Amino acid sequence: VLSLVGSEMCIRDRFEQVGMPANFFQMITRDERTAFRRPPITPKSLRAMVRVVRFVWRHSRPADRINAFLVQHERSLKRYREADWSALEPQELLAQFDQLMRLHGETQWFIVIGPMNMAVRNRMLGRFTSRRAADVVPSDLIRGLVGLKALEPNAEMLAMAFHARALDAADQRLLIEADNQSVRAALSRSKEGLALLRNVDAFLGRYGFLSTNGTDFTAMPWCENPGLIWQSIGRLAVSPRPSITEDVRSIREDARRRVRSQLSWIERQWFDRLLASTTAYIDLRERTSLLMSEETYEMRRIFLALAEELVARGVLAERDDIFYLTYDELRQAVGGAIRAKEAQKLVSDRQAEMAADAEIELPDTICGDEVPAHPILPAVDQEYLVGICGSSGLAQGHARVVLDPAAAPASLGQDDILVVPFTDVGWTPLFSGIGGIVGETGGQLSHTSIVAREYGLPAVVSVRRATRRISNGQPITVDGNKGRVYLYHALDS
User: Fold this and answer.
1) Is the pTM of this model over 0.85?
2) How far is it, in rounded angstroms, from Cα 238 to Cα 19?
């Protein structure tokens, strides 16, 4: 919450400085209509238009700045990775958090500017392709992207799963079904098991900061709960996923060839540059997102160190209670201005408030002070649900509604269609070996769509209320070409 509020204020202030409307970001992402009527031409509006043009020009080619930022920021995070926060006093921890928040604010700015450029270029690419080569699916042009940071964890898990096939069948099943402690005890009894343990520990050292939501420091990361990693390695060891890397690359190359064959020489130069630019910004967005996830994890480490101190003092009853306090309240609790009884009442009240709020179904966009009601969802009587084409292709199977990847069924397979609210890098271990994906949120350049395309999975995203309107186990069909989710097995009809 702190990071989101801070980034919102930072972004809003920057937009207002150049004379843009308050809902500018929602407008450009097509979530809202303009919040104002077209203003009359006056000296003031002309100056505002000049500022907008200047803003667009200044931030229309930020690739080099983003690259330089990522390199510099990677170095800045090194000391946070190596820090032993338990050795610092509470006031020192708060000071470290303040510094990290400043770094995080910079990342938030680039996580807006980069995707803005990515979205604009992808839209231009889609329109250009549709006009010049209507038989080509535009999203096929951005399949098979090489070197995406978001795919590195899964590539390493695939390698570990290959070595896990040397384990006996009982240990392979244990990876899927047992808890972390039991898995470690079993693997330590064999040479192959010990090798896998070392590889997983090294993997968690590199990617253990990932979690369900990379911008939420209350979410438990992989390093604290590696059950999802063991399950994924076990599933891939028992039921190896066929390699599809060459397939998705061939789809991309075929789409590119078909488009270029219908263009003049000048148009081909424009098309090649636009495609290269779009894929470059996709890569930058994924790298920035991964960096932001690591920053969030370091914030969590600082807060948990503070929580240990407050629990030892008796101010908090449990370590995770710290996440129910505002930052100002936390500072007061550290300084002694909030006593144990008051702090624990705040925690209890917030827990009750959040439980009640969890029952509210929020609209796509919230404007003004209107408080959302607790709606009763209408019965679904239509033949299909409509969304956005995330990844082309057709797949049918049984819906597996998953709200938290750590609670996903251990037996996911080709006959399962994942139905999710959203995905982050921490969800991608679930993508291996399934049949398709339905997401409540996202667009063609969302993480869900990008990873689905790389894995050759049909995907439909931005399907409103999908996790509530589709029942777990229900037969469904994903049509990634039309952006539809049929509420039955349409391919058998």
Assistant:
1) no
2) 58
